[in-house]
Amino acid sequence: MSRPQPVNRATISAQLRALGVRRGGVLEVHTSFRALRPIAGGPEALIDALLDALGPEGTLVMPTMTDGQGLFDPQTTPTLDMGITAERFWRRAGVTRSTHPGGSFAAFGPRAAAICAPQPLEPVHGPDSPPGRVVALDGQVLLLGVGHDADTVVHVAEVMADVPYSTAHPTVALVDGLARTVPISEPDHCCAGFAKLDGPLRARGAQREGPVGHGHARLADARAIVDEARALLDVDPLVFLCPPSADCADCAAARASTRRFS
Ligand SMILES: [Zn+2]
After folding, report:
1. What pLDDT, in 10s, does the model give residues 34-53?
2. According to the 3-state scheme, what is the secondary structure of 65-95?
3. What is the pTM of this model?
4. Contact partners, residue 10, CB within 8 Å, separation at least 6
5. From the CA of 252, how far away is ligand 1's center (Å)?
6. How many whole angstroms from 192 Cα to the centroid of ligand 1?
7. Per-domain boundaries in the chain
8. How is residue 257 annotated by DSSP?
9. If you measure from the C-alpha of residue 93 to the centroid of ligand 1, how many angstroms do you get, rounded to a whole number?
10. Fewer CB atoms inside 10 Å of the end CB: C or N, the chain?
11. Local confidence band at 1 (pLDDT 50, 70, 90 cut-offs)
12. Which residues 6+ apart lie within 8 Å of 41 measured at CB?
């Protein structure tokens, strides 16, 4: 069997427009490049296609989180598990990267400075954070070859809903000018339960799906994601955690935790 033909930048840009990426809008993207390839020109061509679809008035946003084990420098610290596309994106000339020591994001476009402005250390992904600002700016969330388990906007909804769980991550941060390891809390868990958003988002026609490259993409308004997540959390504040029978260590730790952000 022959290998699939590489998809080029122009085709990907057309796929993104067909999916419903808004020209001139704010777009937060989570990507598994492996799920999309082969792409002629690799991750750089994918980034160019995203910028083509957004146009010069649009703003592209990607997560660039780090392990928090060393002092974070937005100019040099590599991402952790964010994928090759985000890693290439933040290193581009003119891209702004936010300064949170564990939960940074990168952005390019007219809204980049606003999205990457300084934020409180915690909650990491609250309303006053890059994904929270994507919600406030009525942006879209694009999931390329990944599901909502990779969708940081759902954490914004968890913070807004004041979920009864959180996990502290030891993170090196500057406190009064000195590097210290401090616990930074967020409502964290394995996040597999975020896949429960597919059903309600599809049911209300709020999620467009289709091919991008050789992969499957989901596109939804950030506000719709927050609305549907909060509706599920209103019914059951633990809805996104794996059931105890699933034997998930991350979700068991979240169930045993108590801290809230309010
Ligand atoms: Zn779990």
Report:
1. 999 999 999 999 999 999 99
2. CCCCCCCCCCCCCCCCCCCHHHHHHHCCCCC
3. 0.96
4. 49, 52
5. 7
6. 6
7. 9-256
8. -
9. 38
10. N
11. low
12. 8, 9, 48
